[in-house]
Design goal:
Strand order of the largest sheet: 11-14-17-10-18
CATH class of the largest domain: Alpha Beta
Radius of gyration: 28 Å
Largest sheet: 5 strands, parallel
Helix content: 25-40%
CATH architecture of the largest domain: 3-Layer(aba) Sandwich
Structural class: alpha/beta
Low-confidence stretches: 175-182, 499-510
Shape: elongated
Length: about 500
């Protein structure tokens, strides 16, 4: 008799339903697994056989055939040990329990029949929710946060016997979670905007970027505060939602990266010598890169012009689509990569172009070649362009500076206005442009003003759209229902670009 047991397969962070079909027949003792299993899945034969022997159900003179459906999808990982064992017990007549059609089972087996956690359980939990399953049986893992999802019951089991007892009507002991999703959003940030001297325009720009999820590119001479502003930026971001926390932890687990506090948005900073694979993701067995580890958080690339052109150009897809697709001969995986990008660079090779204190020794050709290391398509995807200048430390009065907490509260209020407008947790920087316009109609004179300014500045259609997105975010910060003329003008000031020049002369802005 053939038995079908549901399980979850993974392709990157995406999960799909796998039906584990098991049939036990008389014959030479063996276990055959088909359905494109990898080496770790094939090793389930020995683990399941040993577990059956320990439980007192040896597979003597029995041939077991296991089919993992859909057969065209490559299966990986030991997640299927538990459903294979249940199918063997049911098909051989050793157990008479009923396997629900709306339940799935994941977990690896020890040789004594106990169920142990494996990598990828949290993505499997999220996949079970999307697949509309009612119950998921899985081993207890204290290293992952509690995943309380509406409509999905999680049953934590420690052995095959626990599962048999539960399916037979005796509910097993449910472990108490020791690492729940964090509800207390109070945290001591290492940096605070209150400690940053000057840069009021840059602080305002970063507040707008945090409110609407807009990308930022900064340039300025060495020591003017670019890195400090970027490192302080996470302190004004709102805490992550429960779903975003689960996605974050899932990606860190898949990448074998050390996990940060779950409710704080990720902040990732890579050295300019980093390879394209480490930033975008990939490898023979594809893993998430820095852009995916920064999902729902911040990716900061300092010394942007020192990165290879290939690496920077590979950022185009995730900046535009919010995801990374990695294709290999044996599989294609997609990882989410909706991150807020902050780039920083010097204006020229020596770094002092436009400085009022140092003389620039670069020729116009050198300046142009250096700035062209960051391609036009990458610059075009930036929402905010900031040109910073050094601030005198003599102006060290910090009394009037706003704290990150005060700024963060305004950002949270602005984000909530966007969530209410679009009826989902999406920001002005991410929402489809047509949907933004339907929710925030521009006046005819405003449309003409924006078109005229964009033609004058030589802006592309993409930048034209970004100016409107910025204006909508500025209006949200002000609590305005419609986009005002003042919001549009302020949005244009955030697209200021540095004039290319030589020598030590200060540079004007458009």
């Amino acid at each position: 008799m053939s038995i079908k047991v549901n399980s979850i397969g993974l392709k990157g962070l995406e999960g799909y339903l796998v039906q584990v079909e098991v049939q036990v027949m008389d014959g030479i003792e063996s276990i055959v697994i088909v359905g494109l299993p990898d080496a770790s899945v094939k090793e389930s034969r020995e683990r399941v056989s040993a577990a059956m022997h320990t439980m007192g159900y040896p597979l003597v003179d029995k041939k077991v055939v296991v089919n993992l459906s859909p057969a065209e999808q490559k299966k990986n990982g030991p997640l299927f040990d538990l459903p294979i064992a249940l199918g063997v017990l049911k098909s051989s007549g050793k157990a008479s329990m009923k396997v629900p059609a709306d339940a799935a089972f994941i977990g690896a087996l020890s040789l004594d029949g106990s169920i142990v956690p494996v990598q990828g359980m949290l993505p499997a939990i999220l996949a079970a929710k999307k697949l509309l399953l009612k119950t998921l049986y899985l081993p207890f893992d204290p290293t992952i946060p509690e995943a309380t999802l509406d409509g999905l019951e999680l049953v934590y089991v420690s052995s095959i016997q626990d599962v048999l007892d539960y399916l037979s009507g005796t509910r097993p002991f449910l472990f108490q979670r020791t690492s729940p999703i964090a509800e207390n959003h109070e945290v001591a940030y290492e940096r605070d905007f209150k400690q940053i001297i000057g840069h009021e325009f840059a602080k305002r720009a970063l507040e707008i970027a945090a409110s609407g999820f807009h990308h930022v590119m900064m340039d300025g001479p060495p020591g003017c505060g670019k890195s400090l502003l970027a490192e302080t930026f996470p302190s004004i971001l709102p805490p992550l939602s429960k779903e975003a926390q689960l996605e974050k932890v899932s990606l860190y687990q898949l990448a074998d990266a050390s996990q940060e506090c779950s409710f704080i948005p990720s902040y990732r900073s890579s050295h300019h010598s980093s390879s394209a694979v480490s930033i975008v993701g990939g490898g023979s067995n594809p893993k998430p890169g820095e852009v995916s580890l920064a999902h729902r958080g911040v990716l900061f690339l300092d010394e942007l012009a020192e990165f290879s052109k290939k690496t920077l150009d590979m950022l185009r897809q995730p900046l535009e689509n919010g995801k990374v697709t990695i294709s290999r001969a044996h599989s294609t995986v997609t990882y989410p990569a909706t991150f807020l990008f902050i780039g920083a660079m010097n204006p020229c090779p020596c770094g002092f172009l436009g400085s009022e204190r140092q003389y620039c020794t670069c020729t116009e050709k050198q300046v142009r070649a250096y700035q062209n290391r960051v391609s036009g398509p990458i610059r075009d995807r930036m929402d905010i362009l900031l040109s910073l200048k050094p601030v005198s430390l003599n102006q060290s009065d910090l009394q009037g500076n706003e704290t990150s907490e005060a700024i963060r509260q305004r950002v949270i209020v602005a984000r909530q206005r966007q969530y209410d407008r679009y009826r989902e947790q999406v920001t002005n920087g991410e929402v489809p442009f047509e949907r933004l316009l339907r929710a925030s109609q521009l006046l005819e004179k405003q449309e003409q003003m924006i078109k005229q300014m964009c033609r004058k500045q030589g802006f592309s259609n993409r930048v034209h759209i970004k100016v409107i997105r910025l204006a909508r975010t500025i209006a949200d910060l002000k609590g305005e229902r419609d986009i005002s003329d003042e919001a549009i003008w302020e949005a244009f000031t955030l697209r200021r670009t540095r004039k290319k020049g030589v020598g030590s002369r200060s540079l004007r802005t458009n």
